[in-house]
């Protein structure tokens, strides 16, 4: 390895060429991702349902646009629970002899939307101690009794139900404490 005039070790010329070959497509991909991100934000700004969904705590622009683009007619679901079940956010039932036992989530439905809602719920949980609201009070009480992942999926279920109600009722979600 050669040393530069300042005494630092520098890369040989072939390593520079190899790195340039690797970095150029990454830079082009970054530019394409930025362009797509701008298109997504523009679509979000034009879409009323997406803007309403983004007002929900734990649902940002990406999740709102994904839900609005995937579920163009929320009336196809008779309830928020049916929508959450379609996403795979409801527990599987194991029933026998009159006893109902609930297991893990069913993992049915749209994996991408389910993942976005769980990530959003996880973000809400992480900030629950700092921003007290009725939802975060419920989160903190649940965390005292149940594991973190279980609470995050349960909150994702709640978010899915709210996300179904907002476009179905045609109203904007009002975050607790901001209505006054």
Which keywords apply here?
180 residues, mainly alpha, two-stranded antiparallel ribbon, 7 helices, 2 strands
Structure description:
The protein is mainly α and 180 residues long. It has a domain at 47-169. The chain is built from seven helices and two strands; from the N terminus they run ααααββααα. A two-stranded antiparallel sheet has the order 1-2. Helix 1 (13-46) packs across helix 3 (61-70), helix 3 runs antiparallel to helix 5 and helix 5 packs across helix 7 (148-169). The mean pLDDT is 83.
Mean pLDDT: 83
The ordered string of helix (H) and strand (E) elements is HHHHEEHHH
| Multimeric state | single chain
Q: Quick one: biggest sheet?
A: 2 strands, antiparallel
- DSSP strand count: 2
Structural category: mainly alpha
Termini, distance in Å?
67 Å
Order of strands, main sheet, comes to 1-2
Task: Based on Cα principal axes, name the global outline.
Answer: extended
Low-confidence stretches: none
Strand content: 5-15%
Q: How big is the Rg?
A: 23 Å
Residues in helices, as a percent range: 55-70%
Please tally the helical runs, counting DSSP H or I stretches of 4 or more residues: 7
């Amino acid at each position: 390895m050669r040393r530069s005039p300042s005494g630092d070790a520098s890369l040989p010329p072939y390593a520079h060429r190899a790195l340039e070959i690797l970095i150029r497509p990454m830079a082009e991909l970054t530019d394409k991702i930025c362009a797509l991100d701008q298109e997504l934000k523009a679509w979000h700004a034009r879409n009323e349902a997406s803007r309403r969904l983004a007002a929900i705590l734990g649902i940002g622009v990406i999740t709102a646009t994904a839900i609005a683009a995937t579920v163009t007619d929320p009336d196809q679901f008779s309830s928020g629970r049916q929508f959450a079940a379609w996403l795979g956010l409801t527990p599987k039932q194991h029933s026998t002899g009159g006893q109902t036992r609930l297991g893990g989530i069913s993992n049915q439905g749209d994996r991408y939307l389910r993942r976005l809602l769980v990530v959003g719920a996880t973000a809400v949980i992480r900030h629950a101690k700092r921003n007290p609201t009725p939802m975060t009070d419920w989160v903190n009480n649940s965390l005292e009794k149940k594991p973190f992942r279980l609470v995050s999926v349960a909150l994702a279920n709640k978010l899915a139900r709210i996300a179904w109600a907002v476009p179905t009722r045609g109203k904007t979600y009002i975050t607790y404490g901001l209505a006054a």
